[in-house]
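Subject: sequence -> structure tokens, single chain

Hey, anyone have a minute? Need the predicted structure for the following. Not urgent.
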Amino acid sequence: MANISWQNIGNSLTQFGNGLLQTTATSIALKSAKCGSIFGFGNFGGYCGMAQMYADPMGFSWLPNNSFNCANRQMGNMIAYQYGQSLYQNAMNGASPSYFGFLNQNNVTNQMNNEYAGDIDKNQDTSKGKAFDTASDSNFTEISIASAESSDKYKNDLSELGKSYGALIDSNKDGKVSQKEFVDHELSKLDSNATEAQKQEATYLAMNAFNKVDTNKDGVVDWKELSSVFATFDTSSTDKNSLDGKIDKKDFDNWSILMKSSSTNDFDTAMQKNYRSLFKDSK
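Reply:
Had a minute. Here:
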């Protein structure tokens, strides 16, 4: 009989547990992919699971028999999928907002060193922010957000859009966007008959998005960070260097899903790159 390493078993269980959490978080994000708001929280489609979590989700590749390995991989995938789906349903049916807060606290994305951009003017016009909300809530093909005539014009247009959208979300008019204001704004887009489970799901996704947009982790979102979000939506998923001032529906949906994920991904990389490109004041 082969020697069994307790360290291998411990590592396997750790990998299995992390996989279940990721399965749940990804399922929540994919479930709301068909939506209309800026960060994709407007509507809720059907439950969407994952085809296969890992090639060897339970970490039993160290077992000596190849045929036994194959059976364990198949069984491991089945167990992980079923348990991940069960965990998702339990979370949606009974988890409290504090549970989602715990998940967010343990999934913090990379931090930048950019300084706070300064308060948004109390008299800032919100018409551009409202116009974007209206457009992104529709079944659009393309949204024009800035002129690509020059880098300065592009930066100015996105800066104005970031300030306008920030002022729209800033309900207490203190010049900045708190996590509560950010989440409340997204919850306001839900249907009036939304269930408690749907509200909890939207809260979780909005908190994920807030954590990504708050790149310097100072607890608020400023207008430069919001402007960088719009630049990221304007980034082509096939050509990461393309910024033409027009948001394509396919790119919007792609970035929205990544933005709502609790794990670090291409959205974080693209947003940080766009922030540096626009404002050049981050180390």
